Inverse folding.
């Protein structure tokens, strides 16, 4: 066996691997549930290596970035009944709890079903080994039985569970999937990241209303769509989904998010999962005054806000607030039509010119961005990436530095879970005199997400797991601090 994918190499066990096997099996941190007769010695292990029946078993080494980290293989290979027994152990302590076992099992299962034509793979595990049981269930193996006092080891009778998976169920969990990215615009990097992660899974398609949207040319295929306010838009979008066998979709612009959330059931009816929060959560995010009220009522610090300018003037006269302040649309995005004002005359002028405005306190502090993923299976926040914004351009982060703060992680997790957000969201926060003030929540990929991805925060991979009904593990803060992002202009030439 030779499988090389995503930093992991699974290769046949060789004679010079014996020393690693002996070290790993004899390590007291590993052998609790292995049930070997230890200590393992070189002579006996060499004899096993030379005399084993290679027609009925495959023994392999797991390498991660060229470092041997564990053992995996298939035993009791029964080609008549099309089944085999799986085994695995991560022997190198430095590489435990890093997802290597999960990926390795999936690779071996894929090999067993496709190359060996197996129909079923099973294993037996100590009933007390709860961590291993959770791993096998995460992979998709189902418990078939519970065997009381099934094994005698070291004068102790051991209960064991039997887990198994059949080829059909494995294929269903790992079927090809196509993703549709709506209103791609200039978000070329997002398309590139999804193409990289979907390379062996399916296709990445994109839409926009303009043929001059550079990101669509990064996709495997693209469609030019009518404006989102066209009465036929949803109907035509569903037609594309059916034609291209789309499994999921999401939008990169705010005005479209509510529309997709509102029509969620129409997409689900044709087998398409909208990667978006529920309609109420989306609407709360886009009504800035309602979000202000929600934050205030639930004890979160935020910028004082007003929709009644007379109420603002009252607080101004009582020194509860001072100039400068921001005047902005209650519903809006990308910092459009936001004005920083310093006088009542400016406020009066803006309120006379435009409807549905609000006044918001100016927070003099460090602006922070957060890229957050809430797992739809567990409904828990499983990834947070935070950065200090150094420079902004057109409402998006232009330059930034990554940092970590457990206090901020706790604040973010509690808030987004309380509201009920799902999948990827983007947040704006201010740090003022050591305190965090929540500014905005955007239930989509943020413009600064490339900073997170390039730092190892892989939302596309989390999405793949979610679509396969695999619960993502907690990865909050799994990135390096003091990583800088600097955007620069690129060009796309069409001929």
């Amino acid at each position: 066996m030779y499988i090389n994918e995503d930093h992991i190499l699974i290769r046949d066990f060789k004679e010079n691997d014996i020393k690693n096997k002996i070290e790993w099996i004899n390590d007291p941190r590993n052998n609790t549930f292995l049930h070997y007769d230890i200590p393992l010695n070189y002579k006996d292990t060499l004899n096993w290596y030379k005399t084993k029946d290679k027609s009925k078993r495959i023994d392999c080494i797991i390498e991660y970035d060229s470092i041997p980290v564990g053992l995996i293989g298939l035993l009791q290979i029964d080609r008549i009944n099309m089944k085999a027994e799986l085994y695995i152990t991560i022997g190198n302590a430095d590489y435990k709890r890093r997802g290597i076992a999960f990926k390795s099992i999936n690779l071996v299962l894929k090999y067993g079903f496709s190359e060996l034509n197996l129909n079923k793979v099973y294993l037996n595990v100590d009933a007390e080994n709860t961590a291993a049981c959770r791993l096998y269930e995460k992979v998709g193996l189902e418990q078939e039985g519970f065997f009381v006092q099934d094994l005698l080891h070291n004068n102790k009778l051991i209960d064991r569970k039997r887990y198994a998976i059949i080829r059909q169920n494995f294929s269903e969990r790992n079927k090809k999937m196509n993703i549709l990215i709506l209103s791609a615009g200039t978000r070329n990097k997002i398309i590139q990241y999804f193409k990289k992660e979907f390379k062996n899974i399916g296709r990445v398609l994109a839409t926009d209303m303009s043929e001059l949207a550079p990101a669509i040319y990064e996709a495997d295929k693209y469609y030019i769509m009518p404006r989102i306010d066209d009465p036929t838009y949803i109907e035509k979008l569903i037609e594309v989904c059916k034609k291209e066998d789309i499994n999921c979709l999401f939008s990169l612009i705010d005005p479209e998010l509510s529309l997709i959330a509102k029509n969620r059931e129409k997409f689900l009816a044709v087998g398409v999962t909208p990667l978006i929060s529920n309609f109420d959560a989306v609407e709360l995010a886009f009504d800035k005054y309602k979000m202000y009220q929600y934050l205030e009522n639930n004890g979160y610090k935020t910028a004082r806000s007003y929709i009644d300018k007379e109420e603002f003037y009252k607080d101004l006269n009582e020194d509860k607030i001072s100039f400068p302040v921001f005047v902005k649309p209650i519903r809006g995005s990308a910092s459009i039509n936001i004005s920083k004002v310093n006088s009542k005359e400016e406020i009066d002028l803006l309120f006379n010119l435009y409807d549905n405005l609000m006044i918001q306190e100016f927070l003099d502090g460090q602006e922070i961005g957060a890229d957050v993923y809430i797992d739809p299976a567990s409904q828990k926040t499983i990834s947070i990436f935070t950065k200090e914004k150094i420079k902004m351009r057109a409402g998006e982060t232009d330059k930034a530095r990554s940092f970590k703060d457990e206090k901020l992680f706790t604040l973010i997790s509690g808030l987004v879970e309380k509201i009920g957000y799902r999948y990827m969201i983007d947040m704006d926060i201010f740090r003022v005199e050591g305190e965090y003030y929540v500014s905005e929540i955007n239930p989509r990929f943020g413009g600064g997400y490339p900073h997170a991805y390039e730092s190892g925060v892989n939302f596309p991979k989390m999405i793949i797991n979610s679509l396969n009904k695999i619960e993502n593990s907690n990865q909050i803060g799994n990135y390096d601090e003091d990583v800088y992002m600097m955007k620069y202009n690129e060009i796309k030439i069409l001929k």
Q: What stands out?
A: The chain has a mean pLDDT of 93.
